[in-house]
């Protein structure tokens, strides 16, 4: 959750930085947090699914990520065309915050209930 929240914060800073040299700095920081998310999601997924469904669940995760990777640039381009490039960064930050909030809707596991 921390990595996703920090990704949203860095995206807001990128939008505020505009065409300055700080934008490049924020891109490097963004990569750091985005790189940290994927293995955590995979480990969490494998921990919460039955042992015999691990491969299927990873396949569904990769499929969802591929779908998001193909639709995301189109939506970002539409937002940037209609509202400006800075708005695309704000849109992305909002979607990451929304995704982070979905974590609170996850059902509790037996270990978490204890």
Number of helices: 5
| Secondary structure: number of strands | 0
Secondary-structure element order, N to C: HHHHH
Instruction: Tell me the domain tally.
Output: 1
The helix fraction, in percent, is over 70%
Oligomer: single chain
List low-confidence stretches: none
**How much of the polypeptide forms β-strand, as a percent range?**
under 5%
Major sheet details: none
User: Averaging pLDDT over every residue, what do you get?
Assistant: 83
End-to-end separation in angstroms reads 21 Å
Cα-based radius of gyration, to the nearest Å: 16 Å
Helix/sheet category? mainly alpha
Principal-axes geometry comes out as elongated
What is the fold's blueprint, element by element?
Elements: H1 2-17, H2 21-48, H3 54-83, H4 85-102, H5 110-113
Helix pairs in contact: 1-2, 1-4, 3-4
Describe this structure in words.
The chain has 114 residues and is mostly helical. The chain has one domain (2-113). It is 84% helix and 0% strand. The protein is built from 5 helices and no strands. Helix 1 (2-17) runs antiparallel to helix 2, helix 1 runs antiparallel to helix 4 (85-102) and helix 3 (54-83) packs antiparallel against helix 4 (85-102). The longest helix is centred in the middle third of the chain and has 30 residues, at 54-83. It is elongated, with a radius of gyration of 16 Å.
């Amino acid at each position: 959750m921390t990595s996703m929240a920090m990704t949203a914060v860095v995206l807001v800073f990128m939008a505020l930085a505009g065409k300055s040299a700080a934008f490049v700095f924020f891109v490097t920081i963004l990569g750091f947090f985005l790189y940290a998310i994927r293995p955590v999601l995979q480990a969490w997924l494998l921990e919460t699914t039955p042992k015999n469904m691990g491969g299927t669940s990873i396949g569904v995760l990769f499929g969802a990520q591929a779908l998001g990777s193909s639709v995301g640039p189109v939506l970002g381009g539409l937002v940037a065309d209609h509202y400006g490039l800075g708005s695309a960064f704000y849109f992305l930050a909002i979607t990451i915050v929304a995704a982070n909030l979905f974590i609170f809707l996850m059902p509790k596991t037996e270990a978490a209930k204890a």
